[in-house]
Amino acid sequence: KARQRLREFDIGDRFSRLPLPRAAVLLPLMVRGGRLHLLLTVRSLQLRRSPGEVCFPGGKREDTDKDDIDTALREAKEEVGLQPEKVEVICRLMPGIDKMNNLVTPVVGFIEDTFQVTPNPDEVSEVFVVPLEYFVKPLNYKTFSYKTSSGYSTRIHCFIYHDQEHRKSFKIWGLTAHFAVFLALVIFGERPTFEVDYDLDNLFSSSENYFTNLYASIHERKKSNL
């Protein structure tokens, strides 16, 4: 059922011609105890950009990458030792734009819950999993509004997830939380316990409007810089 829902939201190459530097992340889904879970990583404290922050495996596109799927799979292999052939890629969801103005495409794939993580310590300090439903029914959630440098207002989700296995809490926010929330909305098709920037009765078209408004605000700023 999740696969079917996700395929309906596949954007394919729809935004491949936008003149922004490209990046991609893998949203690895697994079934554990009869429930869908999402695998997340914590960035190494040695990294220059966003050290210690929670994110999905992923990064910038390289010249050898054929497409966004290639980028996401290559990065997941480099960061957590996930072999590309062990990922059942389902779709690419609506992209986002990060702080560096990279166009970031989320690639959704299923992995086995028996996958043995081997984190690359130069890039990843920890790996953990969260039940996907936490991103529609969280126990610890807050939101704050954020204005891009071009003046476009958007909502930032922030989840605190207490992981029993690691006996610690992780803060999941920003673009990572944005992608996790959208993934949960697509799969579960139900109203979350908090406000979102979408019309839930028209999720695909309203998510596309959200993205194009964000992109337009950045593009305007670029033109004004020129």
TrEMBL record:
Q: Where in the cell is it found?
A: Peroxisome
Which keywords accompany this UniProt record?
Hydrolase, Magnesium, Manganese, Membrane, Metal-binding, Peroxisome, RNA-binding, Transmembrane, Transmembrane helix
| One Gene Ontology MF term | magnesium ion binding
Task: Give the source's domain of life in one word.
Answer: Eukaryota
Annotated TM spans: 172-189
Question: What processes in GO biological process is this protein linked to?
Answer: coenzyme A catabolic process; nucleoside diphosphate metabolic process
Coarsely, its chief localization is other
Q: Which residues form the Nudix hydrolase domain?
A: 20-154
**EC number(s) per entry:** 3.6.1.77
Gene Ontology cellular-component annotations: peroxisomal matrix
CDD domains documented for this protein: NUDIX_CoAse_Nudt7
Q: Gene3D superfamilies from the entry? A: Nucleoside Triphosphate Pyrophosphohydrolase (3.90.79.10)
Record family assignment: Belongs to the Nudix hydrolase family. PCD1 subfamily.
Does the record's keyword annotation contain Hydrolase? yes
Q: Mind telling me what this protein is named?
A: Peroxisomal coenzyme A diphosphatase NUDT7
- Assembly mode: Monomer.
Kindly list the cofactors needed: Mg(2+); Mn(2+)
Which enzyme class, named as a word?
A: hydrolase
Catalytic activity reads: dodecanoyl-CoA + H2O = S-dodecanoyl-4'-phosphopantetheine + adenosine 3',5'-bisphosphate + 2 H(+); octanoyl-CoA + H2O = S-octanoyl-4'-phosphopantetheine + adenosine 3',5'-bisphosphate + 2 H(+); a 5'-end CoA-ribonucleoside in mRNA + H2O = a 5'-end phospho-adenosine-phospho-ribonucleoside in mRNA + (R)-4'-phosphopantetheine + 2 H(+); succinyl-CoA + H2O = succinyl-4'-phosphopantetheine + adenosine 3',5'-bisphosphate + 2 H(+)
Q: What does this protein do?
A: Fatty acyl-coenzyme A (CoA) diphosphatase that hydrolyzes fatty acyl-CoA to yield acyl-4'-phosphopantetheine and adenosine 3',5'-bisphosphate. Cleaves CoA, CoA esters and oxidized CoA with similar efficiencies. Preferentially hydrolyzes medium-chain acyl-CoAs and bile acid-CoAs. Has no activity toward NDP-sugars, CDP-alcohols, (deoxy)nucleoside 5'-triphosphates, nucleoside 5'-di or monophosphates, diadenosine polyphosphates, NAD, NADH, NADP, NADPH or thymidine-5'-monophospho-p-nitrophenyl ester.
